[in-house]
Amino acid sequence: MDISDEGRELDARWRDADDDVHGVLHGCRDASTVAARFAAAGWSSRSSSWHGYALETAWCLLEIDPVEGPDVLLSGVVDPTRLDDLARLLDFFGLRYELELRDEENTLVRELTG
Fold it and tell me: Closest Cα partner for 86 from 99, 103, 71, 73?
């Protein structure tokens, strides 16, 4: 079920980028609840699998999928200068997370935990 398609599309310069952000949202049993929070913050959100969602704004495109247990995995592309904005949004939502930012050679650039 789509939640919102009213958010901004990912900027073209990030459209062909390789996945560069990966992480875990701890204690989230339902990806739809996470998707609804992003949609309420103005992001577009659409179903991408049976239980997963694609979340999109001009500077980030994430896929979130629940896994066995109380966690949700995320991966996607983010404007590297906006990683802290993503973390602040997750903090605002009250979510516990681990994020990794990797460069084009898959070298770890930054890690954030909240």
Answer: 99
Q: What is the CATH number of the domain that holds 57?
A: 3.30.310.180
Q: What is the pLDDT of residue 1?
A: 40
Give per-residue burial for 65-82: e unless 16+ CB within 10 Å, then b: bbeeeebbbbebbbbbeb
Q: Which domain holds residue 18?
A: 12-113
For residue 2, tell me if it sits in a domain. Answer: no
57 neighbors 15 (Cβ within 8 angstroms): no
Q: Mean pLDDT in each 10-residue stretch from start to end of the chain (114 residues)?
A: 54 65 90 91 87 90 89 92 94 95 90 94
Based on the structure, what is the number of domains in the chain?
Answer: 1
